[in-house]
């Protein structure tokens, strides 16, 4: 019988509702190396009254307890979230509570959206009373708040060598693009398209708020599953 080669892979628990991110799930993610150390935990709003109106069925305090468990159990994990600004009836004070939550939790990434009514959703029965210009302004403020934490977090990785799954040819000529285990976008100089789908090691040389750039250190010759 021939020798079977062990293949490398990462599996992620993707976009759960906070109620699904139990202590048991967090402990299991910490225990197994093939479970990617990236947690997508949507907060949507940092204000309890808005969360009730969204029918989210958790409080900021409950969300905070989950974040503390993740940080204590998987300190290397990146934490992504979803945020909606300009939800029906959202006051300026309630929006400021979302900014305060972003400051407290220091997300590695947030997918921020301006609220728009969806047919069939309970919120479609309510008056969408936040002007478009106000939603746009809140979107920009939330994005600026996010970058206060993503940039230092990425800069902290400069000089380190990270495992990366190569995903595609980068828009920058002569570069390939991939993702770290924490799903941070990274590019490195190479025109070897055969690396796409492989794991490689990359030494980080520079960082922006939402991406990394580095130098190829070691090629993993085995393809992931």
Count of structural domains: 2
- End-to-end separation in angstroms reads 21 Å
Q: Classify the beta-strand content into a percent band.
A: 15-25%
Query: Helix count, per DSSP?
Result: 5
Strand order of the largest sheet: 4-5-6-8-7
Q: Give the second-level CATH assignment, the architecture of the largest domain.
A: 2-Layer Sandwich
Quickly give the structural class.
Answer: alpha/beta
Extended strand count: 8
Classify the fold: give the CATH topology of the largest domain: Transcription Regulator spoIIAA
Order of helices and strands: HEHHEHEHEEEEE
| Oligomeric state | single chain
Morphology call: globular
Rg computed from alpha carbons, rounded to a whole number of angstroms: 20 Å
């Amino acid at each position: 019988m021939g020798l079977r080669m062990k293949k490398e892979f990462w599996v992620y628990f993707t976009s759960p509702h906070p109620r699904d991110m139990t202590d048991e799930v967090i402990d299991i993610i910490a225990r197994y190396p093939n479970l990617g150390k990236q947690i997508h935990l949507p907060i949507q709003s940092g204000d309890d009254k808005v969360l009730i109106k969204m029918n989210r069925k958790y409080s900021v305090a409950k969300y905070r307890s989950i974040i503390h468990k993740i940080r204590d159990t998987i300190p290397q994990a990146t934490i992504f979230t979803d945020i909606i600004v300009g939800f029906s009836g959202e006051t300026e004070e309630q929006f400021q509570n979302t900014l305060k939550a972003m400051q407290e939790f220091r997300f590695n990434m947030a997918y921020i959206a301006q609220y728009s009514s969806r047919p069939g959703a309970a919120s479609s029965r309510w008056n969408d009373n936040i002007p478009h210009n106000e939603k746009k302004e809140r979107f920009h403020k939330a994005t600026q708040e996010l970058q206060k934490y993503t940039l230092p977090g990425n800069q902290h990785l400069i000089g380190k060598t990270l495992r990366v799954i190569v995903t595609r040819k980068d828009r920058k000529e002569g570069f390939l693009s991939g993702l770290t285990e924490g799903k941070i976008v990274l590019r490195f100089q190479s025109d070897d398209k055969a690396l796409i789908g492989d794991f490689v090691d990359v030494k980080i040389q520079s960082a922006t708020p939402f991406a990394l750039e580095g130098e190829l250190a070691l090629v993993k010759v085995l393809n992931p599953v």
